[in-house]
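Checklist before submission:
- one chain only
- standard amino acids only
- sequence pasted in full

Submission:
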Amino acid sequence: MEHIYDLSEARLEKPSLVTIGVFDGVHRGHQMLIKQLVEDAHHRDRLAVVVTFYPHPDVVLKDVETRYYLTTPEQRAEQLLNLGVDLVVTQRFDDNFRQVRAGDYVNQLLHHLNMQVLWVGTDFAMGYQRQGNVQFLRMEGQAKDFDLHVIDLVTRSGEIISSTAIRNALHAGEVEQANYWLGRGYAVSGKVIQGQQRGRTIGFPTANIAVWEEQALPANGVYAGWASLGNERFMAVTNIGVRPTFAGDDITVEAYLLDFNREIYGQQLTLTFETRLRPEKKFENIQALVEQIGRDAQSGREYLTRATHS
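Returned file contents:
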């Protein structure tokens, strides 16, 4: 299993089944498609290949400037490989790539991936001015000797799930809905960095996380979830926001790890968000904040304990 960053790096001898898409978040709809692709490919003794893109075409074509991604390119590739994919190609999507004509890109897929079958969604289109729609690709397949397999991104329950819907749920603080669509807890990762250490002075030392600046964050507020440090996992209450009680203005992600007392500066920490405990709030004084953090920690512990045993 392998992850490469340009199609030109590949030269497969064994024929492959290929699917193309952004697959941001690798949600349950994506997972169902990929599992079917892998099962079919391996049943035929073929390779399962996913071609994906970074930056996201929306970021390039629509000048999206907000935090947008549900996964980093590396996280996305890891999740795809964990589903049994043999090769993930993260193709750079830029102004040069967007000029490539669909027929020329099909030729590249055939040459580098030994593509035998191309799997696409019903609304799929690729290449310059989105010329490569299903009808075009069907004609290309007949002319260039590959099969086209058209599928819907739906789950077994008939839901249509989209990365856009998941982003909207996160922006509304509805992490339980986002997690349901993802099939896992929404997560961010980053190194623990030096903060202003106010939490330490009030009895609740927090770990400030340097989250990738392009990754979507849940709405400002306080969340119960899990903190993973290497192979260890701890209950955590995480605050996302500007810390209005301290007149802050930059959004930070800081987690209070329950039953934890170690220095972890510089280490990689992963946080998941299981439920929103409350929105962000400005408190009249530090004592009121301290009392609320204590209640948040207790509420988070109770929620996570119930979730663990349910």
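Reviewer check: The chain has a mean pLDDT of 91.
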